[in-house]
Amino acid sequence: MITEEQSRRILDAVDAAFDSQLAFTQELVRHPSLRTHEGSAQDLLHAAMAQRGLEMDRWELDPGELSAHQGFGPVTVSYEGVTNVVGTYRPAAEEGRSLILNGHVDVVPEGPYDAWSRSPWDAPIIDGWLYGRGAGDMKAGLTANLFAFDAVRTAGLEPAGRIHFQSVVEEECTGNGSLAALLRGYRADAVIIPEPEEDMLVRANVGVLWFKVRVTGNPTHPREMGSGFNAIDAAYTAMTALREIEEKWNADRGSHPYFEKLEHPINFNFGGISGGDWPSSVPAWCEFDVRAAIYPGISADSAWAELEECLAGLSRGPEPIHAVPTRTGFYSEGYVLEPGSDAENLLEQTHRRVFDGDLASFTTPGYLDGRVFALYADTPALVYGPVSEAIHGFDERVSVESVRRITKSIALFIANWCGVKERS
User: Which residues, listed in sequence order, are joined to residue 165 by a DSSP beta bridge?
Assistant: First the structure.
């Protein structure tokens, strides 16, 4: 463990550079890094990593390569120009443990501008909160990774272990960005992902399936509606059938450790719907998008088979409904961070040093890229980050002081996990 005097130097270095850290976070938020438009934000991060003397790697995601892996999420967009950025620090002599500091640069759509109190890309700081789409989820965390590393070096110390700084894409829709980094060969002894997790550590999270359901109908003129078949009406019947699966899975939460006390851990979200061609024609088609959660330990294949059978069963009813699902994104399984790893024990210590309190853990019904490292690399993934509000909503914001404390905790973790040497 590093000395108390070294710890104090690191903490002071975070404070000294914190205004610069906030300014960089604001600049990053001002780049609207929506899906397939992450390029300018990745340019900014690439330059920032290169300025720190890191060994740089940037590559375009290859859906063909990714599709051979069980954790691949089907792709419905072109990956042309869609890139990951990784900067690697290598000590002169690699004597300490290695570390991945991971974060995603992609953000979800901002929705109607007039529902925001200001532009989602302005990134102001007001009353202790930094606003903007992606401010919490998770550009503040991406920036914290870099500035935590800076603090260690500014304190006159050099980490003794290899560190990979990963800025990945596709976290919000497939998880293919972190998967691509794994397939490129990036591995380490531990991973920190500073997602907006309320100053806590994620103990477990669900897997997620994305799919589109297409319901077919029989078009007629409204004067003859009785002889037609309304695909939009039928789509709601299909949604009801899926809700029954959702409730069945929720009723089984007692069989899944860490999910027993959650009121509704399995959520099916109908995130989009369209159908029909003409107001005066009975609609011949309807499509709706679904995001479905599954418990850790449940394979994506088995969950998908049950969902397919649920919808196929509608075609065997007295009034057959033809509802066909197609995978459109996430095809991921959940994971549990088993207690007791050296990485978690150290994070508990650094958190207590900074926050003057114990590190709490919790279970989340949301997707996290931690599953890539936990399931496919047998690596403890510490998903741990700042307090935020309204992520994926209007006026998304992240707590400035929480970001400061999380940065300090990560900086102390880097120094203690990787080991340090005094710079001459």
Answer: 87, 101
3-class secondary-structure state, position 270:
strand
For residue 223, the model assigns a pLDDT of: 65
CA atoms within 13 A on the CB side of 276: 17
Give the DSSP letter string of 6-48.
Answer: HHHHHHHHHHHTHHHHHHHHHHHHTS--BTT--HHHHHHHHHH
123 — phi, psi (to 5°)? 60, 45
What would you measure as the largest C-alpha separation in the chain, in angstroms? 88
pLDDT at position 219 is 62
The amino acid sitting at 272 is: G
Q: What is the pLDDT of residue 226?
A: 62
- What's the pLDDT at 227? 53
Residues of the chain with pLDDT under 50: none
Closest CA to 336 of 309, 293, 368: 368
Phi/psi zone of residue 128: left (φ > 0), alpha (ψ -120 to 50 degrees), beta?
left
pLDDT score recorded for residue 18: 98
pLDDT in tens, 292-321: 999 999 999 999 999 999 999 999 978 899
Indicate the CATH number of 207-331 among 3.30.9.10, 2.60.120.620, 3.30.70.360, 3.30.1490.190.
3.30.70.360
Per-residue confidence (pLDDT) for residue 318, from 0 to 100: 82
Taken in order 116, 141, 190, 348, is the CA torsion positive or negative?
negative
> In this structure, how many other beta carbons lie within 10 angstroms of the beta carbon of residue 208?
27
Q: Is the dihedral of CA 167, 386, 371, 75 positive or negative?
A: negative
- Of 158, 161, 178, the C-alpha closest to 106 is 178
Contact yes or no for 399/387 (Cβ under 8 A):
yes
Characterize the bridge pairing of strands 268-275 and 322-331.
unpaired
Q: How far is the C-alpha of 16 from the C-alpha of 151, rounded, in Å?
A: 9
Strands 191-193 and 381-383: parallel
CATH of domain 4-205+334-422: 3.40.630.10
What pLDDT score does 281 carry? 87
How far is residue 157 CA from its own chain's centroid? 31
- E-strand stretches of 53-190: 55-60, 83-89, 99-104, 125-126, 129-131, 157-159, 163-168
The amino acid occupying position 273 is: I
* Domain positions in the chain: 4-205+334-422, 207-331
Sole residue written with tokens 């599953």: 371
